[in-house]
Amino acid sequence: EVVLTQSPATLSLSPGEGATLSCRASQNVANYLAWYQQKPGQGPRLLIYDASNRATGIPARFSGSGSGTDFTLTISSLEPEDFALYYCQQRSTWPLITFGQGTRLEIK
Amino acid sequence: QVQLQEAGPGLVKPSETLSLTCTVSGGSFNHYYWSWIRQPPGKGLEWIGYVYRGSTNYNPSLKSRVTISRDTSQNQFSLRVTSVTAADTAVYYCARVPGIAVAGAQYYFDNWGQGTLVIVSS
Known about the structure:
The structure holds two protein chains of two kinds.
Chain A: E1 4-7, E2 10-13, E3 19-25, E4 33-38, E5 45-49, E6 53-54, E7 62-67, E8 70-75, E9 85-90, E10 98-99, E11 103-107
Parallel strand pairs in A: 2-11
Antiparallel strand pairs in A: 1-3, 3-8, 4-5, 4-9, 5-6, 7-8, 9-10, 9-11
Chain B: E1 3-7, E2 11-12, E3 18-25, E4 32-39, E5 46-52, E6 55-58, E7 66-71, E8 76-81, E9 90-98, E10 111-112, E11 116-120
Parallel strand pairs in B: 2-11
Antiparallel strand pairs in B: 1-3, 3-8, 4-5, 4-9, 5-6, 7-8, 9-10, 9-11
């Protein structure tokens, strides 16, 4: 099983600041990695797929990068609605996909 | 815009069977893997399995207790988990995964339901 380790567990920032979230895979997943945003009481929303492609309707302030085992989600300038939980997910071993444990982005 | 909605009992007794249904509106059933994922309180996301064109695939950790089926006439797919314990307490989500014939986010969860909490307790 591919283990995804996200860091940090919690990130405290202010609106307008930039955010960098990391996801490390226990083995090479090529570029088969996605990022999701989850808000309380809602299902996750797909933000980024195949490491760097924005999903439909996702603002340009969200960007993804990386390949192999190290990946990054960058939010260029935080809006109030961006404070949420973020998960990475790999599909290199489809259908045995796995998720990271999440990073909580909170308002400082 | 496709929408997914989970439905089912919020409380199930230990050793009994958990049954949930997901209704899909606003989209086609074809070319997609219809999946279930769960999230225990305070924990991360766990993929349970999917149904695709009548075939299924399950997480090996749950395979012996899980059945996923579909009813295309009703635009629904369902989850059954037998012999539940407290460890099965979770928010259960249904989600859609585009297959190879769909442009875009193939093999990722591109649409989710809002989730339904199922508590296993006597």
